[in-house]
Design goal:
By secondary structure, the chain is mainly β. The protein contains no helices and 10 strands. The strands form 2 sheets. The chain has a 6-stranded mixed β-sheet, with no helix packed on it. The protein has a 4-stranded antiparallel β-sheet with strand order 1-3-8-7, with no helix packed on it. β7 and β8 form a beta hairpin. The chain is globular, with a radius of gyration of 13 Å. The model has no long low-confidence stretch (mean pLDDT about 95).
Length: about 120
């Protein structure tokens, strides 16, 4: 059974940082590109970032480029997202997913950016 378990969310002030983690199991993690997607209250699911299976290639939505960093540790079957220079508009539930649409996402971790 495929499982994706996100953690690391929380309440942070604007300009702050957080590191999200996603523990994967039930499939060969190292063979799959991985994604982060997010959903803000009342809005559609939004793709945030993608990383290649080996970790050498990354892609970012324009809204987070230069502020967020995706990475992975294939030995630990874990995906990460470093969030920096956070803005109020980054408030959302963040999900890791095997596909960029978020169809195969985990249960999510809440990130709230507020002063």
């Amino acid at each position: 059974e495929v499982q994706l378990v996100e953690s690391g969310g929380g309440l942070v002030q604007p300009g702050g940082s957080l590191r999200l983690s996603c523990a994967a199991s039930g499939f060969t993690f190292a063979f799959h590109p991985m994604n982060w997607v997010r959903q803000a209250p009342g809005k559609a699911l939004e793709w945030v970032s993608t990383i290649s299976s080996g970790g050498s290639t990354t892609y970012y939505a324009d809204s987070v480029k230069g502020r967020f960093t995706i990475s992975r540790d294939n030995a630990k079957s874990t995906l990460y997202l470093q969030l920096s220079s956070l803005k109020v508009e980054d408030t959302a539930m963040y999900y890791c997913s095997r596909d960029s649409r978020g169809d195969s996402r985990g249960q999510g971790t809440q990130v709230t950016v507020s002063s």
